[in-house]
Write a structure and sequence with these properties.
117 residues, GTP Cyclohydrolase I, domain 2, 4-stranded antiparallel β-sheet
Length: 117
């Protein structure tokens, strides 16, 4: 098994329940680990999963305004997991970098993992 990491990906998106979030947007950080079934030695891209293609899928999902981050992480896992039969597990987290909470410092986020057969 090999794990492909896509970490600290920043997107400007319009996810959220509040009207202001849908208008102003927010910055989100996406972290994803994709475990693939791979041969002992990988020498060609087709033996692995192209992380450029995975990034494109993440971008597509992040471009669709969605009220709940729970829905976003589940959609990310489903879309990536269905991309290639070599993918066995997808673990993803999405952080809202500037949540609309008065006097709040930090981030909020959701994590989700799903196994594929």
């Amino acid at each position: 098994m090999i794990t492909i990491h896509l970490h600290s990906l920043i997107f400007r998106s319009f996810h959220g329940m509040f009207k202001e979030e849908k208008i102003l947007g927010n910055d989100f950080e996406v972290n994803m680990d994709v475990v693939i079934d791979a041969p002992e030695t990988i020498t060609k891209l087709h033996q692995s999963v192209d992380y450029v293609a995975l990034h494109a899928i993440i971008k597509q999902v992040m471009d669709v305004p969605t009220p709940l981050l729970e829905t976003v992480v589940q959609e990310l896992a489903e879309r990536v997991g269905g991309f290639d039969k070599k993918i066995k597990t997808v673990s993803v987290s999405v952080k809202k970098l500037n949540p609309p909470i008065t006097n709040f410092q930090g981030t909020v986020g959701i994590s989700y993992s799903k196994a594929f057969s």
